[in-house]
Amino acid sequence: MEYDNFFLPVDNIEKAKEYYKNVLGLELKFDFSDKGMAAYNVGESEPAIILKDKNIFKDMKPTIWFVVGDVKKEYKEMKEKGIKFLSEPFEIGTGTAVEFEDPFGNRLGITDYNK
To answer: What is the pLDDT of residue 115?
Structure first.
């Protein structure tokens, strides 16, 4: 349907927050540093850059999520097409999400807003 968020791994969440705020001049959308995440708006768009602390998210790679109508339905259809997911769909604050990698090692995900 559309882009959701762009996830980027960082080694030091505090230094990364300084960089994205003071060097790039982005506005903080939310700060869950205690959970290893901080998000920055890019202009007026809803999708954000979400920094994820690699000290907490050990297997983190740059990831793009896309919004779909129903993750569980899309998950089933995508699995039938041979897509291998990194996990079963999981609950997040706004709905459900799941991630996979394309044949080239790029990490992608789908999410819905069904909560």
So the answer is: 85
